[in-house]
Amino acid sequence: MGGSEGGWYFAAVGDVHGQMHAMVRLLEGWSARTGKPLAFVLQVGDFEPHRDDADLATMAAPAKYKHLGDFPAYHRR
Question: Which domain of life is it from (predicted)?
Answer without folding.
Answer: Bacteria
